[in-house]
Each structure stands twice: as C-alpha cells, then as structure tokens.
Amino acid sequence: MGSANGTRIIFKDGKLIVPDDPIIPFIGGDGVGPDIWRAAKAVIDAAVGKAYQGLRQIKWLEVYAGSRAYSLFNTYLPEDTIDALRYYIVSIKGPLTTPVGGGFRSLNVTLRQRLDLFACIRPVRYYRGIPSPVKKPELVDITVFRENTEDVYAGIEWPQGSDDVGKVIKFLNDEMGTNIKVDSGIGIKPISKSSTKRLVRMAMEYAIKNSKNTLTLVHKGNIMKFTEGAFRDWGYELVKDEFRDIAITEHELIEKFDSKLPEDKILVNDRIADSMFQQILLRPSEYKVLAVPNLIGDFISDALVAQVGGLGIAPGANIGIPTAVFEATHGTAPKYAGQDKVNPGSLILSGAMMLDYIGWDRAADMIRHGLEKAIMDKLVTYDLERQMESATLLSCSEFGQAIVDRLE
Ligand code: NAP
Questions:
Q1: Scanning 242, 244, 314, 390, which has the fewest C-beta atoms within 10 Å of its C-beta?
Q2: pTM score of the predicted model
Q3: Site residues for ligand 1, CB cut-off 6 Å
Q4: How far is it, in rounded angstroms, from Cα 376 to Cα 11?
Q5: Rounded CA separation 341/80 (Å)
Q6: What's the pLDDT tens digit per position in 315-347?
Q7: Is 298 known to be catalytic?
Q8: Where are the alpha helices (DSSP H) in 290-407?
Q9: What percent of the chain shows pLDDT beyond 90?
C-alpha cells in the first residue's frame, strides 16, 4: 500500500478523529475522471488553505482502480486499493468504467459491497443561476439516503434458459406453489430488517444533526409487501425504538399537535414511490430527507437532480461505518475524455461533502459559495452554457479556477 506524508484519520468510540494533515486516498477514475479530479483537487486545496490559513492541509494519496489500475497491475480493482480505502477511512473518487465481462458486474457495486458502504447519500439543492426545467427549483433541498447493498441491485439473478434458472423455477413452481413461465429470467429482491434499520438510523441522525424537520420513507409497499412494505414498517419501528423523544408520525401530528410541527420535532412519514415522483415536482418544499430502498432510490435521486439542473453538479457519497467514499455521480463520459471540457461541479461538491464529513465545514461552505458565485457570474462549462443566455464558456479547469477566485 502506498503512503503519503501525513497522518491517518481514525475512528474511535463512534467518532472520526481527524488530524490537521489527514491522508486521503483518491482515485482519479476513467474517461473524464482525471480532468474533473485535477479541477476538484485545485478547488479543495485552495479552500482548505484559505479557510484554515495553512494550518490544515490534505495529504493526497493516489490509489488505482479502473483502466489505469488495469494498465499498471493487470486488474481493474487491486486488493491494495480496497485495503487503502478501508485503512484511511475517508476517500474520494472519479467515475469508473464498468468493464464488459469479467468477474464482477460493476467496479462501483463491488466497492460498495466490499467496503459495506450501505448508504448512498445525495444532497440535492439548487444553486442560483443554473438553468432548470421547473419553475421553482429553489424549493428543492432534499437529501436522499438510498440503500446501497440490497434489493434487485444485489446481483442475484439467473439468465433465461440457463440450468440454474431451470432449478429455481422448478423449485418455486413445485415447492412454493407459483406459476412462473419456464422461459423466464429470474432476479431476487432481498431487503433485510438489519440493512433497513441501519439506513434509516443514519438518515435520522443526519436529519437531527442538520436540523431537517422531515424524514420520509419512500417505498412501493402496496405491491411488494414483504420487501418494500417491510422497509416502511422496519423504518417506523426503528424510529419508534430509537428516536421516540424527537420523532412524530403524521397521525400524531394531526391528533396531538393540530397539524403544526413543533420546532424540536422531526416528522416521520412515508410515501408510495409513484406518488413521491409527483410530490417532488409539485410540493418539493415539504420534503427534507428521504430514506429509500436501492432501486427506487436510484430513480428518485436522478429525477431530483434533473429538477435542479442535472448531473454535472450532483454530488454524492457512499457511506458505511466508518468507511466513506465520496464520488461524482455521473459516469466517465468517454467521448469527452482528456478534453478538459466537462463540468467538474459534481466532484467539487462531493469534495465539499467530504470536508463536511471530516468536520472542515468552513472550507466546504466556501466551495459551495464559490461555485454558486461563478455560476451567478455566468462563468460555466459547456453543459450549462448551452442552456444559458449570454454565458461565458469555460473549460473544466477554468471553471475550477473561477471557483478558486471566488472563495471567501
Ligand atoms: P455518463 O458518463 O454519465 O455520460 C452521459 C452524458 O451525461 C454525457 O454524454 C454528458 O452529456 C453528460 N455528462 C456526464 N458527466 C458530465 C459532466 N461532468 N459535465 C457535463 N455533462 C456530463 O453516462 P454513460 O455514458 O451512460 O456512462 C459511461 C460509463 O460510465 C459507463 O462505463 C458506466 O458504467 C460508467 N458509470 C460510472 C459511474 C460511476 O463511476 N459512479 C456512474 C455512472 C456510469 P452530453 O452528451 O449531453 O454532453
């Protein structure tokens, strides 16, 4: 495992202990990854330097995954990389190409499963000046906690016509009384009590820490009762068992509080997924934190991001206890690779999330303000420029520099 000249972040008694010179591994990524990483690193370093006047500094440690790892070590995901991400606890990555074929479906899914990064967190909010397809994008300020390890994404499936699918169908039809067509492919949707509860617990803790007054369990439990429906039930159970003093249900809100949410309480409610897709368009300000099973979480977070201007500025993190990997939420956009062209905003804002996570929120706030100011000044990359009136087109690195120039 490589090393950098700094000090390791450690996790003790349920808390991160962050030195002033933390070693943080990064994966540049494939395609546009190196372009956006260069811009993001420059912004993160400048913000930390300015916020703490040289008293704090990140010691970056490069680790490898994807095509760069393949060319160096003949494997897409070296064990050393997994070990480093686990050992140093907090890391950041660019997008990775999913190799076609091979022993795993996706490097990202593999990373999430190997490091047990059970929550995919995507805070979705509007930055002034960004073109949006909705009338009031500023009403969106919603953080999605998507379960990251289960559901149909667990990768348990058998192709139509295989011996294995034949066995599964025979078992289900003969032993379980089902009537599945023999020419079917089969996928399994596991959703467990323990994984649901740890996700909802993390979402509740986030709501409390960040003064968010609503947590919504989103599910399709009216149809998938024992998976999505159970997700809702276990979510309420967790809230009742562990957050009774602070959480109230919608029923209690009406019965006990005359529909007025007391300032020191968090409303915990639930919505069926199809209705929730309407709610985020029609009444986004009523929602603050969503806890969602994997598949629906994937859909709803992209839909929300579209409302505030698209993938180029959508940050994300995959978080376990304690390991956390921050990442751009878009892919490798291979047609733009190496052109210094695409919007680095997603990785830059993921960097700001990472700084929040290690408690360096002054630097994180500076980055968010700097990015907003650059966009307000109409200094943007191609993706936003093509949607804005009389904006100035910047390259990826120039946009990073525009943010650095506006850090305060
Ligand atoms: P993509 O790389 O996200 O790109 C799709 C389109 O989104 C691009 O052509 C571009 O649109 C726009 N876009 C993406 N990133 C942008 C940025 N930073 N700034 C501005 N516009 C941006 O999706 P894809 O082409 O479906 O996937 C390519 C590869 O990425 C695949 O191998 C996939 O597996 C992988 N992937 C990785 C991750 C990850 O590592 N977390 C996530 C998703 C996909 P325009 O053409 O309109 O300019």
A1: 390
A2: 0.92
A3: 36, 95-98, 108, 311-312, 327, 330-334, 342-343, 346, 383
A4: 39
A5: 31
A6: 999 999 999 999 998 899 999 999 999 999 999
A7: yes
A8: 294-307, 345-357, 361-376, 382-385, 396-404
A9: 88
